[in-house]
Every structure is written in C-alpha cells, then in structure tokens.
# Entry
Amino acid sequence: AVPAYADAQSNTGEAIIHADDHPENWLSYGRTYTEQRFSPLEDINRSNVGNLKLAWFYDLDTNRGQEGTPLVVDGVMYATTNWSKMKALDAATGKLLWAYDPRTPGNIADKGCCDTVNRGAAYWNGKVYFGTFDGRLIALDAKTGKLVWSVNTIPKDASLGQQRSYTVDGAVRVAKGRVLIGNGGSEFGARGFVTAYDAETGKMDWRFYTVPNNKNQPDHAASDSALMSKAYKTWSPTGAWTKQGGGGTVWDSIVYDPEADLVYLAVGNGSPWNYKYRSDGIGDNLFLGSIVAVKPETGEYVWHFQETPMDQWDYTSVQQIMTLDLPINGEKRHVIVHAPKNGFFYILDAKTGEFLSGNNYVYQNWAQGLDPKTGRPIYNPDALYTLNGKEWYGIPGDLGGHNFAAMAYSPKTGLVYIPAQQVPFLYKNQVGGFKAHPDSWNLGLDMNKAGLPDTPEARTAFMKDLKGWIVAWDPKKQQAAWVVDHKGPWNGGLLATGGDLLFQGLANGEFHAYDATNGADLFHFDAQSGIIAPPITYKAKGKQYVAVEVGWGGIYPFFLGGLARTSGWTVNHSRVVAFSLDGNAVLPPQNDKGFLPVKPPAQYDTKVTDNGYFQFQTYCAACHGDNAEGAGVLPDLRWSGSIRHQDAFYNVVGRGALTAYGMDRFDTSMKPDEIEAIRQFIIKRANETYQREVDARKNDKGIPENATLGITP
Ligand SMILES: O=C(O)c1cc(C(=O)O)c2c(n1)C(=O)C(=O)c1cc(C(=O)O)[nH]c1-2
Ligand SMILES: [Ca+2]
# Structure
C-alpha cells in the first residue's frame, strides 16, 4: 500500500521545497529546508524601510524568554511561546483564532538548563506539531486547534530513575511524513536521541541515539550499528558517562535536506562536561559535538563530522545547519555551513560530510586552528583543563560564539549573517572527583568558580569581555565582510530579505533593519523588552509584514544575572509584534520598572553564608542569577518578601508553595539547614548590593539604566 505520507509529501513537503513559489507563507522553521531564513519578499526594502510602522501586537501570557519562530500558512500565524503554549493568530491583525495550552507542570522548569522556552512548530498536511518542555510531541488540527494526537517522546528507561533529565524546547521538523524531535538535558545527565514519528498517527518510526549504550548493547534503535562499530571505542568503558548518559542531546537543529535526501542531526555537548570524569580523559567521544547524517525513512547512519572531539567546554554543535550551493574551486558544491558554539565556521560537503574548509568567525583561544585536511581542532594545551588540572578562562565560553539565535543567508549578497557574541567562562574541575547532585546541573565543575566574585576588579574585567555583534561572513573567502556592533551579547536571530534588508531584535529591546549589503542601520523600533527570537516575514491579504516574538530570557540573563544588563535594562513584557509600511498600532507605555530594591533585614548569620553561596550556585543561580542578582526575568530574590522569614522561605524552596509558577521544591535535594543557609546568603547579598541598586535608579526613568553596576568607572 502507498503510505499516507507519500501523498502528504506531495503537498506540504513539495510546498516547503518550492517555498519561493508562495513566498507569502513561512512554512517551516528556517522558512525552507535550507534553513537560510531568506525571504524573496521585497515590498519592504531599503528605500522604504525607514517608514516601517507597528501594524499589530499580541500580548503573551508568559513573561519569560520567547525564542519562537512563528509559522505563517495562508494568513494564519502559529506561534509557540514559553511554557510550550501555542497561539494561532490572524496574521493580518494579530487577532487570536485559537490557543492551546498543554499544561506543562510548573515543577519541571528546573529539569532543563535554560528557561522554559520553545523555538517553534512544524506544519504538515493540515496539522501543526510542537514539543512540550515535559517531553511530549503534540499534533493539533491547524484549523481548530483541537488535539489530534500526543505522544511522550521520553521512554521511561532513558531517565534511569532520577539520574537523568530530559526536556524539549527545540522546534520540531517534518520531512517525508515524519515528525522529528530531539531533547535537552546534557547539563544534568542525559543520553541524547532523536525520534521520528508518523505525522498522521503519532506512531514511532525510528530512534537514533547520539552516544553509545553504556554496556555497548543494542538499543534496538537505528543507531545500533554505528554506535557499536564506530562510537563505543571512542569512550572509556568506565567513565561517569556510563551513569550520566554521556550527553549529545540534539536540542536545536535537525534538518532535512531534499537535495542530498538526508536528515542532519546537530549533536550537543558531553554529560558531564568534565572530560576527565566523563570518559577518564580517553577518546574523542563520538558523536558529541558532531553533525550526523541519517536517512529520513529509517534513521540509518550515513556520515558524521565531529567539530569538537573531547568536548569539555559545552561546545555543542547543535547550532543551525544551513545548506547552500557555493562555487568552490570553480565547481558548484552543495554544502552545509555551520557556526557552532566553538567559534569556527565550517563548510562541509552535504552529501558526504567531507570537510572543505573552516575558519574562526569570532575570537577564540582554545585552538591554534583547524587541521586543513581533516578539520580537527589543534588544541591549545592550556584549554584542556580537565587533563592539566588548571583553571581555564575560555573564549568562547559555554554560551558559545553563536547560540540558538538563528543566522540568515542572502543569495543576493552571498553573505551569511551570524548573531555572534563573546561570553567567556571560567572552567575549573569539581574538587574531589565527580559528584552528581539531584535536581541540579552536574557538570563535574567547581560551581563556586562558575560565578564571579563581587569585586569591582573582577566585574570590570569580565564586563570588558562581554560583546555582541552581527558578523556578515563571506563563505567563499571564509572571512568577515563587515560587522555591526551591539552593546552586549544575547541578541535575537536574523532574517534576510529580497528587499536587501537584514532584520534583528536586540537584547536592549530595539528592533532593527539593516542594509544587507553594508550593515547601515535603516530603522529601529523600541519593543520595550529584550528580543532573542528571530524575525520572519510573510504576506497576509496581499501586504508584507515582518514579525518577531519579544521577551527577554533564555540562559544568559538567567545565569549571568546582574551582569546580563550589559545591553541596558529591560523588563520582560512578552508579545508578538508585527510591522508593515502602513501600520498604525502603538504600544502602551512601559510603566513597569521591574523588581525594585527593598531594604533587606539587617542581620544574617555569617557562619553559614559561605555554604549558602555554594548551595545557591549549585541549585539556584542557573535561574535566579549568579551571586543572587537577578536580570529582570524571574524574581530577584534579594528583594523577595520570602527571605524575611525562615518558614516562608522554606515553604517556597523546600515545600514548593510556588510550583505552579515554575519554582520546584528542593526538599529532596537539600536539607532544611542548607535551605536556611541559602536564605542567610541572599540576605547578605541584599545588604551588600542594596545601596548601589538604589543609586543606579536615581535617574528620570527610575530604572537601572547604568550598565556599569558594581564596576569601576
Ligand atoms: O546540553 C543540553 O542539553 C542543552 C540544552 C539546551 C536547551 O534545551 O535549551 C541549551 C543548552 N544545552 C546550552 O548549552 C545552551 O547554551 C542553551 C541556551 C539555551 C537557551 O534557550 O537560552 N538553551 C540551551
Ligand atoms: Ca549544553
């Protein structure tokens, strides 16, 4: 019999392949299967973009990070938001058509590293598909929003009791009638895998694990033979990976390439990060930090290319996989271009994975370069901190030279536009060997060192190293053509258009249009809240719109806390905004000043504050900010009423009074006196920083507009 998807492929699949025949739609995550994020629409162009106006806005009901790429199909926008919610909007007016809330439980927030974000949906044959933070894959009827099917994508045996943690926030993709979905969790303990489900029925089709089975046994999965014949021997048989899972989560990019007829899996970092503890300092640890190509129908392995062997820096290769046709040595080649966290720009042959060339697209200090034949990094020995036992101030750090924010390519300029950044990280081995904590990050690193001391010297030095910019990269020359500097890191993804424009939202809440040929700034709009999502463009009722999700969040403000204010202060007000040339909508004024400093209790117990700091950095900092300074998304605990009473604090942190809002309970991982030590530490930090936070607000706006908080002028 003809499988159901054969027909569907001739509808949606062909439509995605021939997206330029109907440029009014934005049918899949990267618009086309090439993930170039280039739209041929040109009604909005360099000559008129200065007149761009807000056409409509739609307020979201989740004030956390928004990372979604909305889809647009025949005048309907499908936007996924934080907490894995789906909104179907009239793309011309922003009017809500239907909404779907999968009711992701609040206590799951701390099972993932980086905010309860969602990067987007897939569309196929009248249905929309998206993943939920608690691991479900959901199919809805695109017209009505009614549930068609839902499956749990995390099998019980994957989590080994409490040892491992899985969450889903990446955009799902569809190819040849199969929905492809990965997951995250390598900061905790996870063994990465990708699963394909039948788009019509939700029946599981194939699964590919990205790192070996800890006993080198078959998983009865598509990955069995590649893992047993190629990957297992690149791991020590006794490292901590055998319990923690090894990592390799595919949490962002999964791309179908119709030209090569392959699916590329973009594989993440090691779990735990510490290579010495993870794999006894032995082997390359395949397929960590790799692109793996598999067959769409079966998941069968075809080729792999490893960008970061022996990963110990959280150098995921999950970043966006883009395919291009490039002339190389006078010959047209179908290639993958890739700018992973490790700071190098790779060009690979898409059909074979052959390394063609590579060069660093940001400053980096961990490698002397790439071997020109094999593409293997030539390590700086100092960077191998797990082997040499020394501290390592790594650039890029764990957030990478480029993270999830999408890049774009314009076939008109021949440039790849990368939202680049510099966020260093101090790597240091966990003292006394690997010790896993339940309900927390398990990196094998010294969490006391993962943060910054609150001294003007340390903050000033670190602040100088925080950078964010667009690099317009010429892939033919493997070098930068030009750059646009921003105030700091963690800006939104990019969109390139036929109007020779480049659109990007910034961490400081500004939405910009640049000239795609030279980076000249042609338009900006104050969206009032940090933007980290990538824009899209489409036509509705014959008119071109540019739209983007607004909402500050993700791991940078969560973990960096106070220092994430480098780009300026914004209060999270999450929305979808859409622009057109004749728009006349106006945002209401932003009156919210965020969490205001409240004079803290004067007394605290200095005997326990050191332990409080350690517990805070281990369990709390990843969401509430390094050294207990918030960055405007989640409550700034220094000013929280609950720190005033031991019981009130224990009710929240120990007993879970706020689980519905995303604050898990920690009485299974910490003892009451450890939780009390955290409270004492937060009171200490509130006292240390109260006056400078008050002083920083002594301005017209009453917001901490001075990004130099706590640093020497
Ligand atoms: O190793 C993983 O499993 C994993 C998962 C995720 C995620 O699911 O969002 C991120 C990361 N790692 C990561 O390293 C990272 O920098 C990151 C940033 C973000 C974000 O959305 O802000 N997620 C993730
Ligand atoms: Ca990671």
The chain has a mean pLDDT of 95. The two ends are 73 Å apart (CA to CA). Residues 67, 112-115, 117, 167, 169, 184-187, 249, 251, 268-269, 314, 316, 399, 403-404, 554-555 surround pyrroloquinoline quinone (ligand 1) (CB under 6 Å). The CA atoms of residues 571 and 594 lie 6 Å apart.
